[in-house]
Amino acid sequence: MLDLAYLRKNFAHVEERLKARRGAAELLGRFVEVDQERRAAVSEIENLKARRNTLSAEVAKAKRAGEDAAAAVQQSREVGEQIKGLEDNVKALDEALAGVLHGLPNLPHETVPAGGEADNVEVRRWGTHRDFDFEPKAHWDLGPELGIVNFEQAAKITGARFAVYWNAGAKLERALMNFMLDVHTREHGYTEVLPPFVANSASLFGTGQLPKFAQDLFKLEGTDYWLIPTAEVPLTNLFGGDTLDVGRLPLKLTAFTPCFRSEAGSYGRDVRGIIRQHQFQKVEMVKFVLPEHSYDELESLTHDAEDILERLGLPYRTVVLATGDLGFSSAKTYDIEVWLPGMNEFKEISSCSNFEDFQARRAKIRYRDPAAQKGKSQLVHTLNGSGLAIGRTWVAIVENYQQKDGTVLIPDVLRPYLNAERILPGGVLQ
Question: What is the pTM of this model?
Answer without folding.
Answer: 0.92
